[in-house]
Write a structure and sequence with these properties.
Blueprint: H1 3-6, E1 12-19, E2 22-29, H2 30-42, E3 47-51
Antiparallel strand pairs: 1-2, 1-3
């Protein structure tokens, strides 16, 4: 399954990144998340989870560090 099939075309996305036994929740633009996942497919040493629970208030989550780096091609 590709990022385009389950990631919205626009707006913000709740993103969870797992490292070892811990996880970090962030919010990022859908475009940045798709590019991050594309990059992750080349070398996946961590786990990415998109949280689709609509009860989450993503405005309270921190923005993905370095998000702007994933906005380009």
């Amino acid at each position: 399954m590709t990022a385009e099939q389950w990631c919205p075309a626009e707006g913000d996305v709740h993103l969870r990144i797992w490292l070892s036994d811990g996880f970090f929740d962030y919010v990022a633009s859908a475009r940045a998340v798709r590019n991050l996942i594309h990059d992750w497919n080349r070398r996946n040493w961590y786990t990415i989870e998109l949280v689709r629970d609509i009860t989450d208030d993503v405005r309270q989550l921190p923005r993905l560090p370095g998000e702007r780096l994933f906005l380009g091609p």
